[in-house]
Amino acid sequence: MTCDDSRPFFHAYLDGELDAMQAAEFGRHMESCSACGRAVQALESLRSSMQNAQLREPLPVGFERKIRSELDAASQPASSWKLTPWRLLAAAALLLLAIGGSWKFAQRTRDNGDVSVTAADAAAVELVDAHIRALQPGHLTDVTSTDQHTVKPWFDGRTAFAPPVRDFAAQDFPLVGGRLDVFQGHTVAALVYGRRKHFISVFIWPDATQNAEQYAGAMNGYQWISWKQSGLRFCAVADTSRDDLAALKDLISR
């Protein structure tokens, strides 16, 4: 097994989805390849951090009221109060609270507050995982065809929406087929396109939010780009270049 062969198995190995033979072969490769071993360790560390992170901590009841009370007292004339360490601490705490609240708001809100950068990144992690799982033999497509008139009707009755299916073989993005996948507990459509020796998964699901912002990023050698059109959210994932994904996105958006 080479490094290129082992990459699609990273997440499956961590999830315990490999059969005994695949797991043994993958384990032997990791023993002889420190780069792949480090990559798997980094993925495992990332997953643990995301699962164990405590991103929010509620303030004690009455904390803000107490701080404001201390500030009100501190605003009285100098003759009626003393600059106690507690009042200094209260003022500093309220300042930090205001700064922290503003930072969290900026993290949570982009484009009318509907989708946060953090949420987009978390969604990308899940979709990259789904794409990597699909690269295992027999998982890439549920319907395999280069004919859009075969792939599009296949989704009828399997999804609550009609995904737009087109073949872009003339632009070097041939349609390979489609499959059903799961994202955030819901069934989504996934179209598969080829790009030289790479496969691109284009995940599609209904999006009723007002957010129309485009997101893009990269993780562990995989690129992703997400956009919205006609009430649907699209996310293309592949280990090809970002320019390739942008070109496919432009073709789909026409």
Q: Overview of this structure, please?
A:
The protein is 45% helix and 20% strand. The chain is of the alpha+beta class. The protein has three domains: 3-52, no CATH class; 63-108; 117-253, MucB/RseB, C-terminal domain (Phosphorylase Kinase, domain 1), CATH 3.30.200.100. The protein has a seven-stranded antiparallel beta sheet, with helices on both faces. α3 packs across α4 and α5 packs across α6 (85-108). The protein starts with a helix and ends with a helix. Mean pLDDT is 79; it is low at 98-117.
Record keyword descriptors for this entry:
single chain; 254 residues; alpha+beta; Phosphorylase Kinase, domain 1; 7 strands; 20% strand; globular
Short description:
The chain has 254 residues and is an alpha+beta fold. 45% of the residues lie in helices and 20% in strands.
Topology, please?
Blueprint: H1 3-6, H2 10-15, H3 20-32, H4 34-52, H5 63-74, H6 85-108, H7 117-134, E1 143-144, H8 148-154, E2 175-183, E3 186-195, E4 198-206, E5 215-219, E6 222-229, E7 232-238, H9 242-253
Antiparallel strand pairs: 1-2, 2-3, 3-4, 4-7, 5-6, 6-7
Helix pairs in contact: 3-4, 5-6
